[in-house]
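so the lab meeting is tmrw and i was supposed to have these ready like two days ago... anyway. pasting both below. for each one the top line is the aa sequence and the line under it is the structure tokens. i havent really looked at them closely yet so no promises
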Amino acid sequence: MTYTIGIDVGGTKIYSILVDSSNNILAISKKKTKKGTPDFVLERTKGCLEDLLEKGGLQASDISGIGVGFPGPLDPDQGIVFEATNLPEWDHFPLAEKISEISNTPVFLDNDVNLGTLGEALAGAGHGAQNVIGIFLGTGVGGGIVLGGQLYRGTSGTAGEVGHMIIHHNGPKSPRNLRGTVEGLTSRTSVVNRIIKKIKKGDSSSLKSLVDKNEEIKSRPIAEAF
């Protein structure tokens, strides 16, 4: 039996799973990464790996490989993150190498939404289709493209980055300081910022108590408010 680990590094949390060769999920571990530096995220990633091994009753030597999804532009061949909008201090950071060092395991790094779209094409909503487009909404907005059963990256490696498309020239600014992008209008970060701004201007909302207490507004309360 072989075992692999999948890690999703997001703007607010790390979500990791341990699976066997039949793709059965054996363990799950989550850690917060809100505005995390590389060292902080690596520390949390190490904690996730230790949790998974303990829950699965395994040793590090039992793991054949680790796949890591990360938000933002990167080089999957070199395992380097170019930058991260929702995570500071990530300019050209060798994330795959660093995780491999703390785990002593081969690591493959790619954009989180590319991997999510490929996963849906292989075993999810797009199973059986040759061409699949995935759009994922969360802290930001990302997209992935599968053509002919293969992940399509484009000449610059950023094919599918629909979040940076400008659709409203007078819309709010995105984290990248672009006005009217899909991400600037529809991401959870953007929606929360607009909610807070309107409530502080006096608009009524069931979310007012969270704003008054300066508490984090998560996705579930937003959905319930609608």
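ok protien two:
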Amino acid sequence: MYKIQILIVYFVCLSVVSFSQEQDSVLLSRASAAFDLASVDSDSAYLIAKDVLRQSEEKDFSRGIANAFNALGWVFMHKGKMDSSLVFFQEAKKIFENTTSDFDVARVNINLTEVLTKQSRFAEALDYALEAELQANKIGDLPLQTDTKRLLGILYRELGDMEKSISYFNQAIAGFEKSGDIRRSVNTAISLSILLRKMNLPDSSLTVLEKCLTLAQNQPNNDYQLAMIREHLGDSHYQKGDFNASLVDYLEAFQLFEKLGNMADVAYEAMVVGKTQVALGKYEDADRYLSMAYKVSDSLGFTNYQYDASVELASLYQKTGQWEKATKQLGMSLQLKDSLANQMQLQKMAELKEKFESEKQEQEIALLKANIDLESSKSRRRMQLQYFVVAVFLLAIILAYLIFNRYQLSQKLKEQELRNQISSDLHDDLGSTLSSIDINSRIALLKIDDGTLVASQLQKIQENSKTILDSLSHIVWSINPSNDSVQKVISKMKDFASEVFESQGILYRFKSDEEDLESKINPLIRKNIYLIFKEAVNNCGKYSFAENVEIEVGFKNQWFHLSIIDDGKGFDIFESGEKGNGLRNMRLRAEQIQGDLTINSQVGQGTSIHFKVHIP
């Protein structure tokens, strides 16, 4: 009887343990399901993960808690809340480390790498990726090893170590193929092809992509990946200068995306098809596709694609001599880029400067003169009426008139100075570039049978056209009164620094004082401040080989302060001062606005630039 009781107790305990283990297994399965669901339905995934977390905490089930944290981190990453994502992943990692589960720790390290990469925090991401690689190699898990190598390929590409990036991409591709994961193998190979194009190796890129095409064609329901491969084949052929082959691939991609109903991709493919047709001289087809790209992008609210299509249309109309359309598209592109309320007024000013608009110039000048005369006439009538009605205050009115007249004169002088500055900028920035475009186009026409030479000249024309667009954009920004606050100047500086440094993987910190940000800066000083900053940042990005840059900007007690400090290779100031136009231009601009510019640098010890100017 006693033995029977013991057996009953044993089987009851075994049943309880089995039931508990089954519950734990269900919780882990639900956490995995939430993780997988995050990319498709992040809200539902969040609810599942929170419920798993609640039940795991009630049971004090540490693995369940850690997996719930891991799923929540993935959910918040897909919601775009990267900081929250990092917090959950870090909590998951702490628990997994206590359970000594190398597999789970490696998995969380991979997830942390993904989030930090999306934040462009590549150096931190690399630490986690290397740790994940060690753990994956330790346990010999092929999927983990392969995923880690894919991430390391991306990170080394972003950090500029192309040799390591290629090696890791190739290892990842081989790993995915060994695992039978053809889809991810092809996606990784596409990343490798992009890297090869960045290294100006289009033939190598084509070799990789042609292998991708062969593999992808054998996969069912794979139209999207096939379209992406065709798009990148087109990019590689275009870089190589084989525009006919490029057009074939772009059209294939266009048709596949159209079939899938992916309108964002349709808009992009229409744009690159149009650009390639321009290169082939198929201007009517190019117009049709570029116009389609513009309209679809507009309907989707994709301003970046809309802007690119507008720029390409403006270039096309310039090539075909459709000046009115070209001018209109140029205006649209500037409006999209800078969101300027007075874009139409600027376009009229630009038209007055263009040689081919000489007839319009005379009409516009006559119209402006008539408006000025009309305003002067109205002003005189108002003054006469005031003299008759307010005779008692004649002396005060005369005094007010003199002050007002003096103010008007001051404003007119400022306006004239601004017009002269705009005229000078247009002449200096655009005159020589337009002359270069004219020369390049004449050479291309004379050597029309020499395809290589024509392509070279078209490339130069494209580069010069981009230079003109950048110059016009800056002139527009500098004269727009809505940009005359300190805050707007600092915001534009921050955007430019981000554009230069993030594209090159340079870590930078941009610090700005929060005082007097609404104070106004006149256009001349504002322009020169920004150009000094732009020259300094460009020089740092191109020549310093810096890893870290500190930027501080502030405005206090009517003084504007700027400092840029990098840890780059530095240079000999005296030698560079004699030879470099950049440093000389910075000093000339500082002198023009009576600013104080100090540049300190030594070879191997980085560079520091300090600038201050009084703002009246």
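from a quick look at the 2nd one: The CA atoms of residues 31 and 68 lie 5 Å apart. The chain is about 80% helix and 5% strand. will dig more after coffe
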